[in-house]
Design a protein that fits this description.
single chain; alpha+beta; 9-stranded mixed β-sheet; 8-stranded antiparallel beta barrel; 44 strands; elongated; disordered C terminus; AB_hydrolase_fold; flavoprotein; flavin adenine dinucleotide binding; oxidoreductase activity, acting on CH-OH group of donors; FAD/NAD(P)-binding domain-containing protein
Length: 1277
Amino acid sequence: MTYKPESTPLHRRRLLADSSVVIPPDLETATFLNRGNGAPRSNTSHERHRGYKNTCNPDPQNTRYPCISRPVEFIRHTYDVVVIGSGYGGGVAASRMARGRKSVCVLERGKERWPGEYPSTFKAAKDEFHTTGDFVPEGLHGAPIEQGNPTGLFHLIAGAGQYAFVGNGLGGGSLINANVFLRPDQATLNLNEWPAEIRSQGSLDNGYRRAEDMLEPETYPEDFPELHKLKILEEQANILGLGHRFRRVPQTTRFKHGPNNTGVQMQASGLTGQDSTGCNDGSKTTTLVTYLSDAWNWGAELFCECEVRYIQKHPEEGYLVYFAWHGCKRGKFKEQFYHNLMWVHAKQFVFLGAGTIGTSEIMLRSKQLGLRMSDRVGKNISGNGDLLSFGYNLDRNVNSLGRESPLPGFPVGPTITGMIDCRDKANAFDRFVIQEGASPGALAHLCQPMMQILPPSRSPPGLTISKRVRRFLSTLGSRVLGPYYAHGSVEKTQIYLVMGHDGNQASLTLKNDKPHLDFLGVGRSEYIEKVNSLLAKITNGMGGDLVDNLYYSALNKGEITVHPIGGMNMSSDGTASRGATTHLGEVLTGDGSSYYDGLIVVDGAAVPTSLGINPLATITALAERSVELVAGKRGIKIDYDTRNGLLDLWGNPQYPIMDDQPSAWEPKGMSNQKKGIEFTEVMKGFIHLGNDIDDFEVAAFKAESDCALARLFLSVRIPDTEKFISSSEHRGIATGTFSSGLPGSPFNILRGDFRLFRTDANVPDQSNMIYEFDMVGANGDTIHFHGQKNLGPSSALSPLETWKATSTLYVTLKAQDGSLIGKGILHIEASDLLDELRSLNPTGSNLLARCQSALMFLSYFLRQVLRAFLAPFIPLEYPGKKTPEDLPKVAADEIITVTADDGVQTKMRRWEPTANEGGEIFDVLMIPGASVDHNIFALPTIKTNAIEYFTAAGYRCWVLTPRFGITPVARVGFSAFDARLDVLAALSAIRNLQSSPSKIYVIAHCVGSLAFSLGLMDGKIPTSWIRGITISQVFLHPIPGLINYLKGGLPVAPTTLFSALAGDWLNFTSSTHDTLFQRSLNQLLRFYPVGSAAEICASAACHRLSLVYGRLWNHANLNVATHAQLHRWFNGVSMTTLAHLVSMSRAETLLSPTGVDLVTESNIERLRDIPIFLFSGKENVVWRAESTLKSYTVLRERFGEGEGRVERMQFEGRGHLDCWMSEGAVEVWEAVRRRVDGVCGVRREEGEGDVGMGLNDGGGDVREDYSSQKLSPEGEL
């Protein structure tokens, strides 16, 4: 803004008189804080733009704005004081309570904006409008309306008879008012509507003095440039014969540079006339730059976009304040928004400063919900006698259209600078004031059309032809050349703002939970007619037309007020029959003079009558008085004396009260200079409360039967999209509510951990959406919430399964001690999906950055979904140079070379027991299957493996690697029959190492089991050496799975075919550099049948294993580290070994290489007196579970039903090798150990043998526990 003062020397001397003033080198051309169109900083209240700067800066790209509010994610559950609203009353309460060293939380519905961020164009202003109430045109019944931005700067409440216009934002109405600071006359304060304590002479003097000290009102300086509209108002006062009643008004506008009394750097007024849409020149003394900045400096915590809905008594102390958070576009979920409220606990005080309409609405709703109050709540509301009219097309230039940059020599001035004071009447209700106004530039282009549409209520009589021509040309000029044409009718329009007294007969009620404002009769009162007559006189006297405002002309003589007061009126006698609050604003209970201790109204809602002037001074003074006196009741000493010094609004408060959360978190973690993303989702379902059901589906079914509905309303904020995508954790910050039948519902969720498509460490090729947080109930209970969505190959090529995977949340609730509270399932309903998509909100410094952020996030999301959906076609995984690190494991105590009778050498490893209380140590020999070695029992990639389990149980464990395993001789080509010699040699070696030879317990798996059983059947292995046997998957009757059965029945044996094409050895490890045949085989094996879609994976090694043996596991039981390193656990297989297995599986019995059936009655008899335990995984597709069942049946028939003689188990959810290579296989190991204990005569207390082994409860997969971890400012653990 540039202008040339008409009296430069005096004006310049005034600026120079203050040593703190920063004077531009050229006052005539200096640009004072002119920062463009004032576009909002972003879609979220906590984010910074480039703006507010403490010195003159003509480059808007290099500026930035302060941010004293905090993200809602950092709200605490409990404060000493909660302040609702941030206008004059709320600002006073926040500042004074913080100076009283109380923890203070301020909840503001609007956003935080600083000079430079206010709208200055019509489009920007339109985006900040919110309209609610009842639209009542002439002759029609009211129709409820709600349109626009609910957190916008401007809120228009449509009422019957009168509209109310109020402000939203951190600073409340002070952001858009006209800054006029006037005390009412004593006659008004002596009205009977006031309590006696206020009617007392000088009762508010202290409050006014404190308000003046903070807000620093002053009149428009005499040495500042002449303002046309002010000069014309003075002339109009003379027309009325009231020249002596004309005066300049005190206003909270700065006319010099430098810090205010709070310590905030301010700028001299640019005289822009933009006050009503927010001043971008840094001169407007709002509560933001005074009381609220002071409160922030003394430790108060301020939160924006928080619409308080109602208040309830806390069951122990204080109050619960329930609010709807508008962040992350939560309002898009219209059905859920007001039914899933967050809350904050005020231990001592709740101060209501949400404005007349806001406070009254909150208290009406609180009353409906059980907080007993006076019947006067919502009654006796006044419009403060406000009238708005226009003196259109005068015979001189008024210059009342605001501009961000007024023309040199033509400053607009502050919105209001003078008044005609008509408060000298004997009757207080006949008193009023007339003030001139200015229309903000954002509305300039609407002025001419509006003036032409609205019929003039009074035109000047006896116009000459020349005057008519002049008026016509002026009108034409404004139409053609625009509203700023100096000789146009719009620039010749005086705006009249009148305040007086009305009947205080308006009321606010709730209809369908919506506020309904009723001002019927306001526009038809005698008062209005009298004022209009005076306005017509001064308008017509200057050749203009008096034009009523739009609402009066079009809407049944309705008026508009910018100063609604009342609704929670102070009681004139201190009882609920005459008002809603005490003289201190304490809310009356409705029972005589009793009131709620600590529940206090400090805004215009407590004012019991119209004031006849601008009410900001009185509201502030009343709040100062109220807060001081209620603090005194509690013994709270408010520090009024300590001055702040110059505030660093980009730094930290000087006097923090609580410092366990980083106060500088916002600009570091949530700066909109970074490309971020946020969204909101609603999930509904059923959660069973209790610890008696483990299965999610069963728990949800039971909960649904019990009507135990649960709902999660969650917003996720990702501050940095690039970092989010590149990080392995893909973490966001979750905030919201959880509602269910749990005591304390709704539960607040703050700073929760959300992870999108994090690689599941427990299931190969699966990613999870993790929801992990502690949530706090209104009763103070803390419950840990773990939710998980699973997206993996089970969704392959199925849109329905993909939708289920991305919309189904498996929920576990636990107490703080880890005990289970409940389980269940929540879903995103299809009807809510559109709202979720609409809530997706990218953030960034400009449009391009926001588009890039949205594109990055959506492409990442789509890639992850398509990876699961197209699982059979994703790139194959081959052994890489980097493999997941193994967990620390105890190495074998000894590695022994074992030489069989035929000279073949293999290895055997020994582990000594890690826990033994001095008793006898028993030897256990473990025999793995083909193509593997000791690692299937000693797997380093799971938390606890089988070796660790059994050594912790006190057993000495030996693991033999037979010749068909990972040995140098495996490629030679040996059968299981040959390998029986290795088992014999291993048993012999163990016996030789024993101090005195004793029997050995044998645990054998798969082909190892077949080798062992072949040795037993042909008598090669002495049964006298065997203490007992555990058989895993197959023993005497190898019955193949379906796919293996079909392969074995082919006309040409697969082993023969492969030998002809690629040789006698099939390697399970492949690479992109393999032969063409091997690479082609890898691609074909993508489509090899493995069962359900959940078993699809991308591992080339896994595919090859499935080809040879059949699927070896349920993938859900194998963790990623194990699955990624299959090349370490498997080498390959000889066609000779395989051919022998095929022949036995065809015969479903044990065969020698020459085809002799070894399972005869005489050979089975060898097993008599040996305890045998057989088990199978129910979902084993290598050997059908019937393999062990048939062997079990034969042995039981042979040996009878002796206890412990022959036993068998079948494990649900287990396949083949996942009975050994999975952490969750503890249930299998425990069953085996119990049999080993029984055979060896080991006696244990209940549960002994598991303690200290690091096993998870119940045998489930081990999952990470995030409950004790905290989020850093950047949203990282």
